[in-house]
UniProtKB/TrEMBL annotation:
Residues 68-167 form the WLM domain. This is WLM domain-containing protein. Signal peptide: none annotated. It comes from Prunus yedoensis var. nudiflora. It holds the Pfam family WLM. InterPro entries: WLM_dom. It comes from the Eukaryota.
Length: 167
């Protein structure tokens, strides 16, 4: 459709010039808006609140220890008479369970048909990086007992998981 305007419309001479206008109907605009997908990367306030409620309703995931012939049979944490350990013994037990359930450790144990009687948390013998001799772990009687040093020198935390793994 071509619309002709006279010079009085713009207040300037437009003799012989035409303007083309294009558009869509309201129905087409409504159809596009209905079928437009919302941007899932940008969440609104309602979506954020719903996600927060879902996260809060999740129960903590319990670690499943491996089953089968090649496993760690038992676990024992560090007990020092008269000293209350912080982090508590329950956290040390969780660390030992994490190690026992580690896919790399499970794979090595299955490959070599190893069965460990007990994994224990060992007491500090020397200071890591300070003492000339520092024992980080030991294996007694070919896997009857494996002891690992999980805690830091000051007993106020755990050594990093990555530093325990190679031991």
């Amino acid at each position: 459709m071509v619309i002709q305007f006279d010079s009085s419309f713009f207040g300037a001479p437009t003799m012989g010039k035409s303007i083309r206008m294009m558009g869509v109907s309201e129905h087409e605009v409504d159809e596009v808006l209905q079928h437009a997908k919302s941007n899932l990367r940008i969440a609104g306030f309602d979506e954020e609140e719903m996600r927060l409620r879902q996260r809060m309703s999740y129960k903590p995931h319990t670690l499943k220890l491996p089953q089968g012939p090649y496993i760690f049979c038992d676990f024992r944490t560090l007990q020092l008479p008269g000293i209350e350990l912080n982090p508590p013994v329950s956290e040390a037990l969780k660390r030992m369970h994490m190690l026992a359930a580690d896919p790399g450790i499970i794979s090595v144990m299955n490959k070599h048909s190893w069965r460990v009687g007990i994994m224990t948390e060992m007491a500090l013998v020397g200071y890591v990086g300070i003492s000339p001799k520092c024992i980080l772990s030991f294996n007694k009687n070919h896997g009857e007992e494996i002891s690992l040093r999980l805690r830091t020198n000051d007993l106020k935390g755990f050594r990093k998981y990555e530093s325990i793994m190679p031991v």
